[in-house]
Amino acid sequence: MTEFTFAEPDLLDEDLRLIRAQVRRYVTEVILPNGEKWERSGMVPREVFRDLGQLGLLGMRHPVEYGGGGLGAMSSVVFGEELGRGSFGGVTAALTVHSDMSISHIAHRGTAEQKQRYLPAACAGEKVGAICVTEAHAGSDVAGLKTRAVRDGDGWLINGSKTFITNGVHADIYIVACKTDPTAKGSRGISLFIVEKGNPGLHVAHEFEKYGWRASDTAELFFDNLRVSADALLGEEGKGFYYIMSTFQNERLVAGAMSVGQCAKAIELTVNYTRQRQAFGQSLWDQQVVRNKLAWLAAKSAAARSLVYSCARMVDEGKDVVREVSMLKAFACETLQEVVHGCLQLHGGTGFIVGTPIERMARDARILTIGGGATEVMLEEVAKRM
What we know:
The chain is an alpha+beta fold. It has three domains: 14-128, Acyl-CoA dehydrogenase/oxidase, N-terminal domain (Butyryl-Coa Dehydrogenase, subunit A, domain 1, Orthogonal Bundle); 130-238, Beta Barrel (Butyryl-CoA Dehydrogenase, subunit A, domain 2), CATH 2.40.110.10; 241-384, Butyryl-CoA Dehydrogenase, subunit A, domain 3 (Up-down Bundle), CATH 1.20.140.10. The chain is built from ten helices and ten strands. It has helices spanning 14-41, 46-54, 73-85, 89-109, 112-123, 240-276, 288-316, 322-347, 357-365, 375-384, and strands at residues 129-132, 148-152, 155-166, 173-179, 190-196, 202-207, 218-229, 233-234, 278-279, 282-283. The strands form three sheets. A four-stranded mixed β-sheet has the order 1-4-5-8, with helices on one face. Helix 6 (240-276) runs antiparallel to helix 9. The protein is globular and about 80 Å long. It starts with 13 loop residues before the first helix and ends with a helix.
């Protein structure tokens, strides 16, 4: 089987190249042989989190003094891209939601006590994180959320619900966005709280059966007079919207990296399939139209990948990248749709059979133009900054 890879960016140092090799080896030895089993069970086993924690891959962006690696955005895109090449979108989602989208709130905004309490276990893969923002009527429109947190003595009472929460069933640490000032308009008056598994006010109301990402658990959560202490407040009261928007930039960067990794894998699978599939007395690969189609998909994927690494570099340089990351999220995830469906077409009837990698990849890819900021919302973010 011929491997399809993009050229390694010159801006990656030796440590990042070693991280890529380490993740790729784990994908090959553990994720690919077991992914189908995890798809059927609907969850990624805890030992996978622990394995990657022991390898130092779950806390690469977090402070060294709390068990992290102290690395920059480049480490996240390398991690996301290589997991994407693993072709199991649900596995990638569960791991990156933990490493880059939930626990990162504690790393960036937590007190020293909160960091000491949660980060070492999260970096080690002993505790799993989830980010709870989306509600039935507040997805990309974060400012519209209704879950309330009100002061109660020396703590807070939380009431409301969240939906489509990745790792929602099996997480240990939930970062929950709540409205703390009902009189504040728009994005004001939102705060973040840390909620631990086992709190009697936390209820998993429903575990969703999904079109794709079947190896990750996704839940609807209810908060029924859920009480947390005052030290569960994460960051400053009323600043939650800004914290969420800041972390969204990293989520979108990682989504772009995941997308280009999946593009490369889909192209690899299809090049190999068309070389061995015979039709009309020759292989499909022998037909110029097929070769040109795959070359075009590879070119668009390479362009998306260049934007991924360009954005990561700008993040590491401390630049404002809202416009560029919004471009990336839209372009990379839409490119992935074109790639997986174009590759499925070239697989013919085989690509329509459940259990074939390209069929699964086409299903898994669909959510990426919706979650983390829909394409339409991303393009509006770009337009506002033109």
